[in-house]
Automatic annotation (TrEMBL):
The lineage of its organism: Bacteria, Pseudomonadati, Bacteroidota, Cytophagia, Cytophagales. This is PKD domain-containing protein. Gene3D superfamilies: Immunoglobulins (2.60.40.10). It holds the Pfam family PKD_4. Residues 258-365 form the Ig-like domain. It comes from the Bacteria.
């Protein structure tokens, strides 16, 4: 088994395991002999099949022992000893690489090189130096061949331990292509002198060469030693104008950076030449269909000679008869005569021009009638000619061209085949007609327009394909949407966009498409609406509607189901009116709002009072003398068994001097309060079992209740309430008293409730033994009285206004009144009742009035609150109004 070892210089060599010193030297000699072979490592490890290119040799150059590349010229042929340097790259950083190869000088195996370089390799431009110098013959080409590279993994030094051939894996080795070793640039050339053409002196032919440096090379010749470059090719000729020894200089520049140059100089002897006239009429030529004239290629090396051509056997010279290259255009024999300038010596030569203008034959074949359909969309056309090597050219519709013998076409029309004989350029042509059956007449219809009125439309597609052979499909794009009928010619669509109709003919396989565009007109009109205040005189107002958009309609909606299609309708009810303006052309609409306010109405004056019982005597009380007038009060005492005493137990109690057991009602600032007394005596003593206090405002009229204060509402009064009632006993408001604790105080909000005729205070609860309980005191009862004011709308006619023949009696009224009116024209009428804010309260009566006759309408005010109302009767264009005052 073979191993790789490193010597003390860091070099590695193949050897048997652990050799003795003697065996080691013998083994080195054996390896050296083996390395002379052209594939040393392949013989040492023949089974390796390397697959990696991770570590590669980029370039190889010769350098001195210090690593300086050899650049100075040496004498060709002398022996040079130098050190071989390798520039290596690696894709992955690693340590150590074994590199082996054979140096060839002028293509001959010369020296083997091998070494394991135990250094870190990273990226490109890693320079490795072989430790042993090599011998090189200056001027000879040197190459490194049979290159083998092996390496290890990662940061492990590949050159530390012996490595067997079998341990080198294919993924860690590489075989490189031969590399030219960079050596000193050496320029050289050879020169040969000879007499050429009719030159008087010899012409020097030089052939330059270069080795070393870096190819490719550039060449510069100086034939006169005057510093001027006369030629820049590797091989050149130069004709001298005198005899003698001439200095020739060749400067070679390589491709390295910076570039290197070398110059080689040699002396060349130039002799005189004798002048011998010669004539060469050139090669025979042929005229063809494409070459109707030719230029003869006569030549002569005689300097200063004159030339003359003569045509015979049908030949014709077009021009240039006194030159070496005349133009001729006829078959025949042409003779060139060359005459020297000195002595008039002549020499002649003959050239023959022949003619070949025979046209080729041309044929077109097809496997069947050339007819195109969508299922057979192509046709095969074949060309043929008996001429050997004939060329073919097809032309056809839409600029069709082809140069093959056979073609496959997909467009109907006339196709022309032109056959050309390559021998003479002559042509012949033939035509064939290809027909087709592919046409489908298809239309997606006219473009259409959607609008607010027409939110969907039906497209109008049409086609020439019969229904039983066609399949239809529509597709929508650019926002379009197909509602139905996507596989009919007339689908329904509801969005602007592009609609593509596709029809397929199942008989011919042909299909066609067409496009229709649907747009949207959704431009809205302008809308302006103007309202105002109902007239005091008529109770009506004419609304104003307008639009800057021509061709519109108007529609109004308003309170109580009001509708109108007039532009400026008259209304009699206050509220918000909506005007809708619709553009007739597209059905789009816009809205505007008009506010109608009622006639100015009198707001009743409020006179507010506070009853704190300060003027009332201590003890039982049945009437409270309030600032607004007498208010009846009755206290329903509840007994322990839940029954109520029939007598009045309402009493005035002094909180600053409590009596009985009512110390929990003590205050320093409330003074007189209203309680339910336990006894029928004038000694106030708060009843402990609960009850009810009822205050009756019948003598003052309806009042507006604001608030009152409550004292000592605790857990024993957890179900205590205050109720407010109207004139018919209906409940208007209620509020629960808050159980805030013993001797607690609270102000009860009574909601500014209008129309109150009675107030009931209920004291109810349970004590800790779950027995009936309930007590408390009340103070500062706040309420207001509404007083009538004059109607600010002076134009509203009074009940007795003679001008409109409408009156009401009695007036004021407390429960019922009768309205009388007379219309100039008879007809149907409707009578409605409004409050002073213009709100419709109810319809009073409908009927038919006779012209000029008195008509009555009854008004029932029992369910109404005290106040001022308007009765309005409308018949056609006549309107009657009357003010009604309700005072109960």
């Amino acid at each position: 088994m073979n191993y790789l070892y490193r010597n003390k210089y860091g070099e590695r060599y193949a050897s048997s395991p652990k050799p003795s010193n003697m065996k080691w030297h013998l083994l080195m000699l054996l390896i050296s002999a083996l390395l002379v072979s052209s594939n040393v490592f392949a013989q040492t490890c023949p089974d390796l099949n390397c697959t990696s290119n991770d570590v590669t040799v980029q370039r190889v150059y010769l350098a001195d022992v210090n690593g300086v590349p050899l650049t100075s010229a040496c004498t060709p042929g002398e022996q040079v000893q130098a050190y071989l340097h390798l520039v290596v790259s690696t894709n992955t950083p690693r340590v150590g690489a074994f590199i082996l190869g054979t140096l060839k000088i002028d293509g001959m195996a010369d020296q083997a090189v091998a070494n394991c370089f135990g250094v870190a390799l990273t990226g490109n431009n890693n320079i490795l130096k072989y430790p042993t110098p090599v011998n090189w013959t200056c001027g000879k080409k040197i190459m490194l061949v049979d290159i083998f590279v092996a390496w290890g993994t990662g940061n492990t030094d590949f050159c530390v331990n012996p490595t067997t051939c079998s341990s080198i894996v294919p993924s860690k080795c590489r075989r490189e292509a031969p590399i030219v070793v960079e050596a000193p640039l050496i320029a050289s050339f050879t020169a040969r002198a000879s007499c050429t053409e009719n030159n008087r002196y010899e012409t020097i032919a030089v052939s330059g060469s270069a080795t070393g440096g870096k190819a490719p090379y550039t060449y510069a010749w100086d034939f006169n030693n005057d510093g001027v470059t006369d030629a820049t090719t590797q091989n050149a000729t130069y004709t001298y104008m005198s005899t003698g020894e001439k200095m020739v200089k060749l400067t070679v520049t390589d491709s390295s950076s910076p570039a290197k140059t070398d110059m080689h100089t040699s002396m060349v002897m130039v002799n005189a030449c004798c002048t011998t006239p010669d004539a060469n009429a050139g090669d025979d030529m042929v005229l063809t269909c494409t070459t109707t004239s030719v230029v003869l290629n006569g030549s002569s090396a005689t300097m200063g000679a004159t030339y003359a051509w003569v045509a015979s056997n049908g030949g014709n010279i077009v021009s240039g008869g006194a030159t070496l290259t005349p133009t001729v255009n006829a078959a025949g024999t042409y003779t060139l005569t060359v005459t020297t300038a000195r002595g008039g010596c002549t020499a002649s030569d003959v050239v023959v021009v022949a003619e070949n203008k025979v046209a080729p034959d041309v044929n077109i074949s097809t496997p069947s009638v050339p007819h195109l359909t969508c299922t057979t969309p192509t046709a095969m056309l074949g060309g043929y000619s008996s001429v050997q090597g004939a060329t073919y050219k097809w032309t056809g519709p839409d600029g069709f061209t082809a140069t093959t013998q056979g073609i496959e076409v997909s467009v109907a029309g006339i196709y022309t085949l032109t056959v050309t004989d390559p021998a003479n350029g002559c042509t012949a042509s033939k035509q064939v007609s290809v027909t087709e059956d592919k046409e489908i007449i298809l239309s997606a219809g006219l473009d259409k327009e959607l609008s607010c009125k027409n939110t969907s439309i039906m497209l109008d597609g049409s086609t020439s394909v019969p229904e039983h052979w066609r399949s239809v499909s529509w597709t929508a794009s650019n926002g379009g949407n197909i509602v139905s009928g996507a596989h009919t010619l007339t689908p329904t669509v509801n969005a602007a966009g592009t609609y593509t109709l596709k029809v397929v003919n199942s008989r011919s396989g042909c299909e066609a498409t067409d496009v229709v565009v649907v747009t949207m007109d959704d431009t809205k009109p302008t809308a302006q609406a103007t309202g105002g205040m109902l007239s005091c005189a008529t109770g009506a107002l004419q609304l104003k509607g307008s639009s800057t958009t021509p061709g519109v309609t108007y529609s109004w909606t308003g309170p109580n189901g009001f509708t109108s299609i007039e532009q400026n309708p008259t209304v009699t009810v206050a509220g918000t009116y909506i005007l809708t303006v619709t553009k007739k052309s597209n059905g789009c609409s816009a809205t505007a709002t008009a506010i109608v306010t009622p006639q100015p109405t009198p707001e009743p004056e409020l006179t507010c009072h506070m009853e704190n019982f300060s003027d009332e005597k201590m003890g039982l009380v049945s009437v409270l003398n309030t600032p607004a007038g007498p208010v009846s009060v009755f206290g329903h005492k509840r007994n322990p068994d839940g029954s109520y005493a029939p007598q009045n137990h309402a009493a005035i109690f002094d909180t600053q001097a409590p009596t009985g057991d009512d110390t929990d009602l003590y205050t320093v600032d409330w003074h007189h309060v209203l309680i339910i007394n336990q006894d029928q005596t004038n000694v106030p003593n708060d009843n402990q079992w609960g009850g009810e206090l009822v205050l009756d405002f019948a003598q003052t009229g309806p009042v507006v209740m604001t608030s009152m204060r409550a004292l000592d509402i605790d857990g024993y009064e957890s179900n205590s309430w205050i109720y407010l009632y109207g004139d018919e006993g209906q409940e208007l408001y209620k509020v629960k008293l808050q159980a805030l604790g013993n001797n607690s105080r609270q102000t009860v909000d009574l909601g500014n409730t209008r129309g109150v005729m009675k107030m009931k205070i209920v004291l109810d609860g349970r004590n800790e033994m779950m027995h009936l309980a309930g007590s408390g005191a009340f103070d500062e009862l706040k309420f207001c009285i509404e007083n009538e004011v004059e109607n600010p709308c002076n134009e509203v006619p009074m009940a007795s206004a003679e001008s409109n023949k409408a009156v009401a009696y009695p007036m004021p009224f407390s429960d019922r009144t009768t309205v009388e009116f007379t219309f100039v024209k008879g007809g149907e009428y409707v009578a409605n009742l409004y409050d002073l804010r213009g709100n419709l309260l109810k319809e009073l009566q409908k009927g038919t009035a006779q012209a000029g006759q008195l008509t009555n309408v009854e008004v029932d005010g029992r369910s109404l609150l005290n106040g001022i109302y308007i009765a309005r009767i409308v018949s056609g264009n006549e309107v009657k109004t009357v003010k009604l005052i309700l005072r109960k």
